[in-house]
Amino acid sequence: MKFDELDRKMRVYETAHDHCVLPGMYMIARIDGRNFTRLTKEVHGFEAPFDPRFRDMMIETVRHLMQCGFHVVYGYTQSDEISLLLDRETQTFQRKTRKLNSVLAGEASAKFSLLLGDLGAFDCRICQFPNAGLVVDYFRWRNEDAYRNALNGHCYWRLRQEGHLADAAAQALSGYTKGQKNEFLFQRGVNFNELPAWQKRGIGLYWEKIEKQGFNPLTGESVSALRNQLKIDLDLPMKEEYSSFIANLISE
Ligand SMILES: Nc1nc2c(ncn2[C@@H]2O[C@H](COP(=O)(O)OP(=O)(O)OP(=O)(O)O)[C@@H](O)[C@H]2O)c(=O)[nH]1
Ligand SMILES: [Mg+2]
Q: How far is the CA of 61 from the centre of ligand 2 (A)?
């Protein structure tokens, strides 16, 4: 069989199920560390529940994903996950989910591994939303998840420090209400409300316009130009204020 014929024959098996996200749909990629429970605690011994070194590696991974050829409007990270809101009109890879998922997972894994100096792999899935309200709800959902993770994480590791084995600590926690978890920490000198915002709400990355002063060598005049700069926000708002913040980003 000639190559062209073979190529035509085989290509269909590769592309027949290529899914393209419909025009007008919002796309959010969620990228999540594979087996990071083991990687963070058994292999690399990161501080638990939160290690600023791990946080910074995640932030740098998001920064890379926002600067490697995708049109990302907003990046968000908490725990071992990253969410990227793509520009609604983006045509990258003709909106093929197969390409978006594999390239984003590949870029995240490559960058994080370089930062860690060891293998760290990520998966990726694309969520598709027909309206801005659902995009706001999505980020509220991850924001609330960060809050729950932080409260549970602080209680869990305190119980472990006090000598409870993993199962016993998880079992004890499952019976506590949110108020009891706060009280549990408070009795041990930890005011949950005063813990750093990045632990409770996650971290946002978005583009800010800043004015840069330059110099025109032809006229000798100083000139100003607007530049896009990536803002890393460790102090995101919460609840309704966070919803408004996301809604504003989308409408810009
Ligand atoms: N020690 C430590 N662990 C962290 C930190 N941030 C996230 N993690 C851990 O990362 C893990 C993320 O959980 P999951 O994504 O649900 O679990 P996973 O083991 O990655 O499993 P899969 O995602 O299904 O592959 C949890 O065990 C978190 O405790 C950190 O700053 N320090
Ligand atoms: Mg994970």
A: 15
**How do residues 89-123 score in pLDDT, each as one tens digit?**
999 999 999 999 999 999 999 999 999 999 999 99
CA-based radius of gyration for the chain: 22
Say how many Å lie between the CA of residue 177 and the centre of ligand 1.
Answer: 23
All residues with CB under 5 Å from ion ligand 2: 32-33, 36, 80
pLDDT at position 151: 98
Which ligand lies nearest the alpha carbon of 36?
Answer: 1
Parts of the chain with a pLDDT under 50: none
How many Å lie between the centroid of ligand 1 and the Cα of residue 73?
25
Residue nearest to atom 8 of ligand 1 (CA): 79
**Per DSSP, which regions of 20-172 are E strands?**
26-33, 72-78, 81-86, 122-129
- CATH T-level topology, domain 17-212+225-251: Alpha-Beta Plaits (3.30.70)
